[in-house]
Write a structure and sequence with these properties.
single chain; about 350 residues; alpha/beta; seven-stranded mixed beta sheet; about 25% strand
Length: about 350
């Protein structure tokens, strides 16, 4: 079968290669991939070629499909079930994070479809769900309700990230305002969670390149205002829209240092800033406001089973909309087109399906 693989350790390019179909151990499941989505975490390796011939992993950690094989010792799952993975492949099972069910904060975690894993992910035809993870974390996969499409289930990972950040990590109350930095899928799903939770003003902050596609979708999904940070004074506009006393929550989904700086500048005392996006440059500004005005910067990573249960119900109910965010549907053979569309922001979410005849 064909698979999109990454090479190299820290950074490395992608290659479409031939790989053998995976074997099913006595406790494993084999899932035939019906839809897989490109994530921002995949993008950091696009068009980065370090010349390495060291195989890293089959990529694609946002995927859904059908169980086509089960191991002889598997009792909880059966062939034919439609499932979605939370992308966990391995955890230690004994650390404080695992004890509390927060498996993706286990320091020994290995994610399916991300770096340096032996099982692979969804950018191929078949994927193994290892029995070892199902022994520890029975909700490493979830059955997809009948009314949810494969392509919608495949993006439950960013939905769950947004749900956890907004609904579980903050003290938000209905009637308050929210500022969301970053127009990617997590930011756009955060807008939807804020709408569901009863936010009054939901302000989306992006850049000039976001005005073509993403701002319109943001408004369709619930943003009350969109601010072009390339041309407008973000702090002044947010203060004008919300009022200083109502700037109590910022979801920073972009990872840009300037966004964190602006979040600190605009927010009132006792505010919360959830940093969801990742950046890799050192900060060049003071964060003393978190002490001077009792502000909280909350780090965000992933989700738990409560997140998944509730997010699936919201998706099934229609409260969360995915279709406006799926801008491209491509075959795996067209993977470069999909990655390029993500890179130039003409795409919001790209869904890929296996289109080879093996």
């Amino acid at each position: 079968m064909k698979a999109l693989a990454r090479y190299g350790k820290e950074f490395g390019g992608y290659r479409l290669i031939d790989v053998p179909e995976p074997e099913c151990g006595e406790e494993d499941l084999i899932v035939e991939i019906k839809a897989a989505a490109i994530c921002g975490a995949d993008m950091k390796h696009f068009q980065v070629e370090n010349g390495s011939d060291e195989f890293n992993s089959i990529r694609g950690h946002e995927f859904a499909g059908d169980i086509v094989k089960v191991g002889s010792k598997v009792k909880d799952w059966k062939v034919g079930q439609r499932v979605v993975s939370d992308n966990t492949g391995h955890v230690c099972g004994v650390c404080p994070a695992c004890e509390s069910g927060d498996f993706l904060c286990c320091e020994s975690k290995v994610n399916l479809g991300l770096d340096n894993n032996r099982w692979g992910g969804g950018f191929t035809k078949y994927c193994v769900i290892p029995g070892e993870i199902l022994r520890i974390h029975r909700h490493a996969i979830w059955e997809i309700p009948e009314g949810i499409k494969y392509e919608e289930a495949a993006v439950l990972d960013p939905i769950c990230n947004s749900y956890n950040a907004m609904a579980q990590q903050t003290h938000f109350l209905p009637g308050q305002d929210v500022v969301v930095f970053g127009t990617g899928p997590i930011g756009l799903f955060a807008v939807q969670i804020a709408r569901i939770m009863g936010a009054v003003n939901i302000v989306m902050v992006g850049l000039e390149e976001d005005t073509k596609v993403r701002f319109g979708v943001a408004k369709e999904l619930g943003a009350t205002h969109c601010i072009n940070g390339s041309k407008e004074d973000v702090v002044a506009r947010c203060t004008e829209i919300c009022g200083r006393d109502n700037l109590g929550l910022v979801l920073e989904c972009s990872g840009a240092n300037i966004a964190l700086k602006q979040a600190l500048e605009m927010t009132r005392p006792n505010a919360e800033i959830v940093r969801i996006g990742m950046g890799f440059k050192p900060l060049e500004f003071s964060i003393n406001d978190i002490t001077s005005w009792n502000k909280s910067i909350i780090g965000h990573m992933a989700y738990d089973s409560t997140t998944w249960r509730n997010a699936i119900r919201l998706l099934e109910s229609g409260a969360i909309k995915v279709q406006p965010m799926i801008t491209h549907r491509l075959g795996l053979s067209e993977w470069e087109e999909g990655f390029q569309a993500m890179a130039d922001k003409s795409a919001i979410k790209v869904i890929m399906t296996y289109d080879f005849e093996d």
